[in-house]
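Table S7 (text form). Paired inputs.
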Amino acid sequence: MTQAPNPTYTNLFIGIAGMIGAGKSTLAKALGEHLGIDVYYEPVADNEYLEDFYRDTAKYAFATQIYLLNRRFQQHQEIIWTGRSAVQDRTIYEDSIFAKMLVKLGLMDSRDYSTYQQLFTHMSNFMCRPNVIVYLDVKPERSMERIEARARGAESGITREYLDALYEGYREFITDISRYIPVIEVDYDRFHTAEEMASVIEREYLNHNFLRKATAFDPAR
């Protein structure tokens, strides 16, 4: 049950970023309960393209990216227009990581990628940046372990090559985005519970310990 909103977090917009299986949804839920704010989850269960995407990535890459961009933009606008504090499980900015990675792997046509970029640019004129992005640094091998452990049928086609390329994309993304949006980078494996991580993130936010360069911080300090 979500607790009463803390006045300290009025109009607070937190984005959770990270690899597939990083634990974004779990942390988003914990942060929502810990801070008493709304939670917006990544569209997975009702994603009409996800299973087809992992079955035949090249064929469904563009359609899937457009679908996710549209859904995340819808969430983003709802967060802004409701005027309430919220945490979002995977930000709209991360979609560009997947699109760029798909082009590099030869799974998306460069023409489609150009169209995707133009659409994102137009949408960005109507977006408000999160106050802070929390990046869960999970390596590709750990991501694969978690994907296999949760055994979602649609994710059975994910390869290590795909995750390696995705992780490289995330490292570039965090370096770039931290120039514009404050980033708190954490190693999820160093925390016993999502609630413990939520407490540390709250402390880092209140102390303005934002990372303009992507370097891990010590949760014990």
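Next pair, protein 2 of 2.
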Amino acid sequence: MNASATEVDLVVIGSGAAGLAAALTAAEGGAKVIVFEKQRAPGGTSNFFGGIFAVESDMQRAQFIDYSRDDAFKSIMEYSHWKANPRLVRAVVNESAETISWLEQQGVEFAGVTINMPKSPRTYHTVAGTGLAVVKALVTNAKEIGVDLRLGTPVTKILKEDGRITGVMVEGEPDDIRVNAKAVVIASGGFANNRQWIRKYTGFELEKNLIPIGNTDKFGDGIRMAWEVGAAEEGIGVVELYRVGPITTEIGGQVEWATVQPDLWVDPRGERFCDEAIAFYDTSVGNVNAKFKEGYSYSLFDTSILEHYKQEGLDKSVNARTPPGSKLTNFDKELEILFEKGNTDVSVADSIEELACKIEVDPVVLKNTVEEYNRYCEKKHDDLFAKDPRYLRPLKGPKFYAVKAHTIFLGTMGGIRINHKTEVIDKKDAVIAGLYAAGFDAGGMYGDSYHISVASGSSVGFAFNSGRIAGKSVLNYIKNVSR
């Protein structure tokens, strides 16, 4: 690293949505910024998102969507039972519409505003393509205005002197290199791949009863370094849970589409465990599946249900590209490919008893479960869990299917305590001067669960908005310390 790169206004740790938003915002305000990313490519999990939370955006106004900032704030806080940091939530909500406009100015294209959950507010601003295009646009713009992006360069330590952040140490050869900076933004993306921390802080066993999706080499480096300089802890146990099956090299095929629909779900013992219409609400689905120490449940359906989805289309949207009504035109071919590859998450049988043997549950228990469920379907009333009758479809055969649906997660969602300016707070409730955190490293936006049903797109929305708030806070800070 040359000498000119060792004296900057701001160091950003991480090049995902939060890090890029912070770096660009600060650089637009005239700050000299360097971004360190330990991966060889920028973006991380931000390359895969499909939409962003916002309220009172121009797109929403154009469609007469009247869900307001006040509505969003109240809904998020009530969802968290007021465990979330109200000033932080308010700041993020208030920033959200401006962030959409800012992204458009960066060249990001949006496809529209939608939602894939019944009776939920339309806050999900879908991007044209995926997050990869957004990351590319932001990286290009950042470089054009002078942001120094260093890939494959991990930060090893945050430096603090006399109660104030003074820079970082960066991995180098033969020795680590000091980079002096007035401020540091931590945006390293959480600790989804840290087996020990997952066990300690969430109680799950990584890759056994909780499977990370789309996360690579995330071990909580930024959180650890913040704690080392005195940061307080918040939200360390919150994870973005979901339920997916089968697990393949590519999530999102038509076998998965059928698996996540609101048909009959059974636990590892073959008993029904919820109103399957919660299928529309990802957090509820993840939470209920996470109750099972085995890390999975089963989705059951039959030939007639499959035929319904082939002819009438899906009930639940899988993503913005597969809205309700999308048809299973390729299910049989994809199922055949799964079997050819030796996937054991899917079982097919000519009877419920045979299916029970294949998924290793008691045939009597599964037979009783299906017979009880079929009786509810026939009379169009679910005596057990009061499921909406429109989703009560009996399993009659001739073929019966079971797909193992695993408890997965898309990221950890906390660790460092921050305030509404994204300033990092120490264990004595004081600000650590010059230190900021954003995105999945920062706690306070959630209670114990991701509030997707009241603010869809909020995880990436929090990343962008907290990053922009951090960038603005840094500009104000370095202006004051330079006097």
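The chain has 14 helices and 20 strands.
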